[in-house]
From TrEMBL, chain A:
This is Gas vesicle protein A. The gene is gvpA. The gas vesicle shell is 2 nm thick and consists of a single layer of this protein. It forms helical ribs nearly perpendicular to the long axis of the vesicle. Coiled coil: none annotated. Gas vesicles are hollow, gas filled proteinaceous nanostructures found in some microorganisms. During planktonic growth they allow positioning of the organism at a favorable depth for light or nutrient acquisition. GvpA forms the protein shell.
UniProtKB/TrEMBL annotation, chain B:
Its main location: other. InterPro entries: GvpL/GvpF (IPR009430). It is found in: Gas vesicle. Belongs to the gas vesicle GvpF/GvpL family. Transmembrane segments: none annotated. This is GvpL/GvpF family gas vesicle protein. PANTHER family: PROTEIN GVPL 2. Residues 235-272 are annotated as: Disordered. Keywords: Gas vesicle. Residues 258-272 have a biased composition (Basic and acidic residues).
């Protein structure tokens, strides 16, 4: 199970935390009418796909298959939801799911960077690529234009 | 040259980060505009500023530095004023309001909490709670996986149960953490989370809050809970009551129109 320790320091602010709070930096905070905001083209895609589990035929079939593979005996007897008992068969599914959510954010921002790069504005976004490459996102992600 | 604004603090702030690297490449140097007992933390605004990683980090780092020394009202990324005089004018005009907010946020920080389901773990949970799902799964399995329609029926039932679980888990997460925070705010909608909540927490009780998060992790092992903080209070710069619980569950947004569309698609596929 993924357990992310809380940041205990107030200063610094590593880049790992940035991905997780991107939407706060871009969508919360003080707005003053007398000031203008820089263009955030490409960032709006943060708002897509609000639902976590989407009701669709594909999702239904995928979940039916996933249930079919589950070890039924283990479920009711042990305390529900313990990831340990899920075992090897299901490992890829759970990982894919949680990584999907994370790499979604990474993809979003790396997409925005890609766009910026293509406009000849930046060359220092290479760090964002390893995250995007790890992507095993199962959900549909829209690419920025 | 126009002026990029990071945040607003009191001019009595003990350690304003003057000279720190701000946004832009090369980085613009951070300076301070003081007016009416307030201090705006600013820098020059680079031409063609975009939300790039380096600039987002610079914004975040400057605010973290200011926040470490005293309360700050963080600006949303990308706020640009015509010049320093405009910034000073805004400070003068709304001084009382900003001072009130700074007082209200003194000694408090934001913690953002996001949760998602571990898929296989939540399936186990759903099965253990729902005899009907269990029975249908077993029937399908004995039929060698079941036919297309049986699979659809099972899948639909499971998806409904998982979605109900998402809503319940989001509510339980909020109920568990709200009592150990001063305020709660629903985060902006974004992909992949069944809950995205920001909590305003007094620095001195941060340990209590983090302990409560640990307890949720233990009691909800099918949840992946991510905590980020302490952060500048992005979600609490505007006054107002905390969000009621029922507005914070962003995962239950299937519209009737969409449900109809899905029904139609299913019908089509079944007929094929």
């Amino acid at each position: 199970m993924t357990v992310v320790p809380a940041q205990q320091t107030g200063g610094g602010g590593g880049s790992s935390g940035l991905y997780d709070v991107l939407e706060l930096v871009l969508d919360r905070g003080l707005v003053i009418d007398a000031f203008v905001r820089v263009s955030l083209v490409g960032i709006e895609i943060l708002k897509i796909d609000v639902r976590v589990v989407v009701a669709s035929v594909d999702t239904y079939l995928r979940f039916a298959e996933a249930c079919n593979r589950l070890d039924l005996e283990a479920g009711p007897r042990k305390s529900p939801g313990l990831p340990d008992m899920v075992g090897e068969i299901t490992e890829s599914g759970a990982r894919g799911k949680s990584k999907g959510a994370l790499s979604g954010a990474a993809e979003t921002i790396s997409g925005a960077f890609k766009q910026a790069r293509e406009e000849g504005q930046g060359e220092r976004q290479a760090e964002s690529r390893p995250r995007a490459r790890k992507s095993t996102a199962t959900r549909k992600k829209e690419e920025p234009e | 040259m126009s002026t990029y604004v990071y945040g607003i603090t009191a001019d009595s702030h003990p350690s304003l980060p003057e000279g720190m690297d701000g946004v832009g490449d090369p980085a613009c140097s951070v300076r301070v505009v003081k007016e009416g007992g307030l201090a705006a933390v600013v820098s020059d605004a680079p031409e063609g500023l975009r939300p790039k990683r380096k600039d987002l980090l610079a914004h975040q780092n400057v605010l973290a530095e200011v926040g470490a020394g005293g309360p700050v009202l963080p600006m949303r990324f990308g706020s640009v004023a015509t010049d320093d005089a405009t910034v000073a004018g805004v400070l003068a005009e709304r001084a009382d309001h900003y001072k009130e907010r700074l007082d209200a946020l003194a000694g408090r920080v934001e913690y953002n909490v996001k949760a998602s389901h571990e898929e296989e773990a939540v399936l186990h949970r759903v099965m253990s709670e729902n005899p009907e799902v269990r029975a249908l799964t077993e029937a399908n399995r004995q039929a060698g996986g079941g036919g297309y329609q049986q699979k659809l029926r099972l899948g639909e039932m499971v998806v409904a149960a998982v979605k109900a679980r998402e809503a319940e888990d989001a509510a339980e997460l909020q109920q568990a953490l709200e009592p150990v925070a001063d305020a709660v705010s629903a985060g902006p909608e974004s992909s992949g989370w069944l809950a995205n909540l920001s909590f305003l927490v007094a620095r001195e009780t941060a340990e209590v809050f983090l302990t409560a998060v640990e307890q949720v992790r233990k009691s909800h092992p099918h949840l992946d809970v991510r905590v980020n903080g302490p952060l500048p209070p992005y979600s609490f710069v505007d006054p107002g009551p905390s969000e009621p619980a029922d507005t914070t569950i962003g995962s239950d947004a299937t519209t009737d129109a969409e449900a109809e569309r899905i029904q139609e698609r299913m019908q089509e596929r079944i007929q094929e």
